Amino acid sequence: MSLASISIKNPVFAWMLMIGFIVFGVISFNRLGVSQNPDVDFPFVTVTATLEGAAPEIMESDVVDVIEDSVMAVEGVKEVTSTCRQGSASIKIEFTLNTSIDQALQDVQARIAQAGKSLPKDMDPPIVAKQNPEEDPIMWMALTGTRSQQELTQYAKNSLRDRFLTVPGVGEVRMGGFLDRNVRIWIKSDELRARDLGINEVVAALQRQHVEMPAGRIEGQNRVANVRIEGEALNVETMRNLQVAMRGSAPVYLKDVALVEDGFEDKTRVARSNGLPAQGMGVIKQRGFSAVEVADAVRKRIAEIQPTLPQGMELNIRVDNTKYIKTAIHEIEFDLTMAVLLTAFVCWLFLGSLSSTFNVVLAIPVALFGTFAVMYFANFTLNTFSLLALGLCIGIVVDDAIMVLENIYRHAEEGEDRVTAARKGTEQITTAALAATLAIVAIFLPVAFMQGIIGKFFFQFGVVISVAVLISLLEALTLAPARCSQFLSVGGRGNIIERAIGRFFHGLSRFYAFVLGIALRWRVTVLAIATAIFVASLYLVGGLKKEMVPTQDQGFFMCQFTTPVGSSIEYTDRQMSQLEKILKNTPEVEGMLAIAGTSDLNSGFIFVTLKDKEKGERTANQIDIINKLRPQLNSFPGTRVSLLDFSQQGFSGGRSFPVEYTVRGPDWSVLAQTAGDVMTKMRNSGLMVDVDTDYRVGLPEIQVLPDRLKALANDVDVEEIASTINSLIGGARVAKYKDNGRRYDVRVRLLKEDRLRPEDITSLYVRNSKGRLVPLSEVTSISVQPSLQSITRKQRERAITITANAAPGHSQDEALKKMKEFEKELPTGYRLVASGASQAFQESTNSLVFAMFLGLLTAYMVLGSQFNSFIHPVTVLMALPFAVTGALLALVVTGCSLNIYSLIGVILLFGIVKKNSILLVDYTNQMREQGMGADEALKHAGPIRLRPIMMTTFAMMAGALPGALAHGVGSEVRSPMNIAIIGGLIVSTMLTLVVVPCFYSLIDQADATARRWLGIGKQKTEAADVSGGEALGK
Questions:
Q1: DSSP string of 298-314?
Q2: Would the pTM of this model clear 0.90, i.e. be above it?
Q3: Is the pLDDT of residue 495 over 80?
Q4: What is the secondary structure of 791-814 as a DSSP string?
């Protein structure tokens, strides 16, 4: 007994099944998280190491080499990238995609712990963490006001940070532009010499007088008490009066040789919000939580905090990524609603019956809510990819219902009662519906298993579409016939519009029958013309703009800038102020958060938020604003500015620039020269702008060279020289200071006016082993040399990374092709390797093409199994090339780019147009089983199957139309996909209705001729002719 018969005999079961899908789907929908992209465990682990004052070369040899040696042995390591800067190093370890990132994290931590003995003793323990784009802040807040920077900073860290960490879903609050509180001891070099003191004596005395330590415990007969020495200075004034030496009978206090103040660590960062001093606070959500829900909870917490802020402080949101997410999700939901309404209208036009239309449209909520339930249990979220899949499903999920309902409706029009029509109509179309649905699943399952990071993003896309169409098939074979057996009504079209539509389709069927007859007589000519059209359309690819993802107007972008190497934080701050003035005077800019001194003193970034385009506050697109600002922001000599939108954020572990390459080779000087030549060519090509590199040379380094013979003659140890310079010039951390339960560093350093010139170093004094102060000028010499600001390594060889944006009017693909040309011109032994978004673009294109061909192969196998034929699957697949033709033509006409989203639209087309071909070929085979010849069966099947083919096509076009016409937030992603679908449907349907029958007829004749040549009898030939329909007709 078929599923249809079971459902017709037990209609309550069918209704309960439908209600169950909807009820559990509604519950699941309300529990689904909302995010921009799927939650993905990126296969990256980062190790951050800090060694104060160490040069990049020292960080490379003493730290990075040791860590790389230890982590290279961890299972699953794919690539290791290291960056060394002054006093810090970052090692990024990329693992293969099948590696458990949690296990990899534990393995890396264990290996580094084992290597700890080989690392410098005075180095802070390395920090190991997973890296994930989802762990970037979802919003940035700014605490501003008339208070001092110290008050803002301390209040943000000590009061506000903890308040936000208690918000459900908040994993971390990142402090932007933060300067930690320090007790600063500014040494007066003249006073030291006047009192015959060396800095090491002051430090030692301070550490003797400022002590806090446990001292065991007292154990009584009944009680135990801990003992602690509280010898630390309780306040700054007490510290000033600590005795550091005796000179004669007079004590020398710390205040005699130094200024002691409650201040900050060395100023290396500056933060401003809309031009006012600020403390930035970035909110990072926990994995698995909805970004939108977390952001809403943070806004509520801000509203609670505002009334409690000290007078003169204000807390505002400066950057909110979730605003774009919420609006984009809302736009997609609106498109979904419009798609449902348009699809229902199209079904009514074709069926002319409200009951039949109602039966078809009911497939949409059943499929959608059933899919929501599966998404919930699979831990999926409502994100760009899953919602795009659901949007595309609207036109697809009604296809099976349309095929079944149209066939049932035809049987009812022929006079059969509702129950018989429902049973026979469903059973007759079951195999075709099953083949068509499995063909779509066969296309999209390979998409779900694409490799690379892009494959992880599209996993949810492929699964959602596959689940939705499978549920729609179940609905069409069970619920639809049960409903038809109860409520189907067949009658003439009541009003003039309905009768006119009926006459139109009747006339269209007759016209199609006429055209089909002519085409079958000239089938070779028809196929030749169709082939020529397809080949000609391939030339359209060359004129298409090709990129990984289209640029999206997200309402915010980032301005990255660098000043000349060696710039002080004060100079960088002044240059940042100039950039802020330009942005402030730009009418479309709403606000900004600027932070200088991010990774180096000469670099920084400005988050720029634009006015709301949806509210009509601006008319210009984000990319146009960026292009207008670029020459203005780069008008300051020595300051390089790169403008970065976040369209490609999350698709790679790189910097999110469309163009990102690394130059690799053995010799550092040749490597630097080669990178410089490549950057010059990039700028001169006209295809790229914002060309920048992580290679920074020219940072002045003052090298102090001890004269060992003179030092020996003066009884001075080299270690004493190093510790003296480190304390007075470097700013050594010598103790801790406690206040309100928190502990802060105590640092000593020379007053700024005593360390302005290289010569100030040699004017310092060092204590020799006999107690005499010796000037450093007698035992050392100095030289000023340029040094590297940073050193980058890829796979343990030095590398220089180059980034750029595609120039206005040019595509990412054009830029990457030009980079490949540059690679051919490199010196022998040097390579130009794609990384970041450039590598992701290449991987995504290859993955999608591979998925496309694998899907076609899978579809062929499914169709071959369904038709029991090696030939008929080829006949069905003949429609696919014309889907490509239509999609390319539509993209060219509308000016859209060829990107991963439009390519997904093409893949979807392969599944849709196959369904139309299956309908035609399946019914033709059924007619041949009844004794008709090939051409006669085609002429009979074509007009009968015209209406369901047109219905499925127009239903899919109706479902895609809202997305194609979208112009709101996120439309840059939706439009290319839907435009490709509509164009492919129009062209492929027009040609499929003619080309497929011609190819079927030609193959049938060729098969019959071959059999005659092989001596196979007429009876066997006829049996072979209908072999493909045997399984279908039962």
A1: HHHHHHHHGGGSPTTEE
A2: no
A3: no
A4: EEEETTEEEEEEEEEEPTT--HHH
